[in-house]
Write the C-alpha cells for this entry.
Amino acid sequence: MYRVAPELVLCGFGMLVMLLAPVVPKARHGALAFISLLGAGLALGATRFVALYPGAAYSGLVRADAFSVFVHLIVIGAAFLAILGSVNYLKRENLDAGEFCALILFATAGMGVMAGAHELLTAFVGLEMSSIASYVLASYRRDEPRSNEAAMKYFLLGSFATAFFLYGIALSFGATGSTHLDLMTPLANDSSHTLLKIGLGLIFIGLAFKVAAAPFQMWTPDVYEGAPAPVTALLSTGPKAAAFALAMRILASIDGAAPVWFWALWVAAALSMFAGNLSAMVQTSLKRMLAYSSIAHAGYILVALTAAAASDHMEAGIAAALFYLVSYALVKLGAFLIVAHLGGEGERHVNIEDFTGLGRRQPAMAACLSVFLLSLLGLPVTAGFLGKFYIFNAALESNLVWLAILLALNSVIGAYYYLRVIVAMYMREPEIEIAAQPVPWTLALVLWIAVAGTIYAGLFPARIIGYATRAALNIR
C-alpha cells in the first residue's frame, strides 16, 4: 500500500471533492479548489513512502524506486501548480471548480500509475485513467465551440493511439508470454523475435502520440489552443512526463527494445524539432506558438532517449531527459498560466499583438514571461540552457553527432519566435490599449515558484541532476 500511497491520496481526494461539489454552493466552490490543493500536497508528501519502501508491489505490477519517485514529483507538482494557478480563471469564466479539480486529481493518479508501472497492462490502465480525464478537461468550457472541437479531436486521435498501444501489448505478449517488463524475452523461435519487434513498434506509436512527437503531433496545436489555458498547462507537462517515463522504463527493461526503437527515436526527434520550430515561427497566437514549441521540445527529449538507446550505459541519456522534464514543466506551466490570465474573459487576447507594451503595462508579468521564454530558448542562467546542454552532451557521448547538430540548429531557429514575443512586450507600443489585469495571489505564487525553480535549476543544477542520475541508475 505504501508503494502506491500517492495514487490512493489523489483518488481519495478526487472522490471527496466530487461528493462535496453538489452540496457546496457554487459561490463557495473556491473551497473545493483548496481541498484539492490539500490532496495534491499530501500526495506530494506521500512520495516519501514510495522512497522509504522501495521494491515491487502487487505481484510486480508496480515498482517503487528512485525513478518512480522522481517522475511522481514532476507530475504531482505540475498538478498542484495547475490547480493553484487556475483558481481565479475558474471564477472569471464561471466554471465549476469541483469537477475541474477532481478530474485533475484523477488524471494525475493515472500519470502516477504510468510512472510506477512495471507491467504493460498496468501502464495501459494508468494511461486510460489519465486520458479519459484529460478528454473531459479539454472540453471544460462547454459553451465554447473551440473547446468542444479540441476535445473531439483529442478523443478520436487518442482512441487510435490507445488502439496501437493495446495491440502492441497483445503482440508483445504473444512473442514473450508475459507483459512484465523484466520477463519479456522472445520465445525460442524466429517468428517471436519478429512479433516482438512489431509489438514494440506499435507501442512506440501509441506513446509518440501522447508526447506529441512528429509525425503523430497533428492534434497538438488545435487541442492546446482550444482547451482552457490551465488545462493546456497541465496537458503540456504532466501527461508528457508520464508517457516519457514509461518509454524510458520500456527502453531500459526490455532486452531488445533499444535496437528496435533506435531509428524510430532518431527520426521522430529530428522531425519533431523541425516540425515544431518551423511551424511556431509563423504563428500569430501566443497560445498556438507555445503549442508548436511543445512539439519541438518533445523532439529535444527524444534526442536524449535516442542517446540512451545508442549506448550500453543509457543512464546519461535518461538522466538528461529527466532533468529536461523538470525545467520544461516549470516554464510551460508558468507560460500557459500567464496566457490564461492575460487572455481575459473567454481568452480573447492571446495573440502576440495583444502582448505589445506588456513590459510597461505589467512589468512583473512581462518579466516572468521573459524568463520562461528565455529558458525555452536555452539562455544561460536558466534551467533550459543546462537541460539542452545535458542532452547535447549525452548525444555526443553516444556518437550521435548529426542529431546533436540538428539540436543546435533548432535551438537557433527557436530563438527567432521566442525573442519576437520579448521584443513585442518591451520594444513596441500597442495599437489598442488593453487594461492591466490585477494578478491574484494564487497565480503570483505559482509564477514565483516557477521563476525561482527555473533560475535555481539553471544556477545550482547539481542536486537535481544528481537525483536524476540516481533515478536513471534505478530504472531497471
Remarks:
- The first helix runs from residue 5 to 20.
- DSSP finds 19 helices and two strands in the chain.
- The radius of gyration is 21 Å.
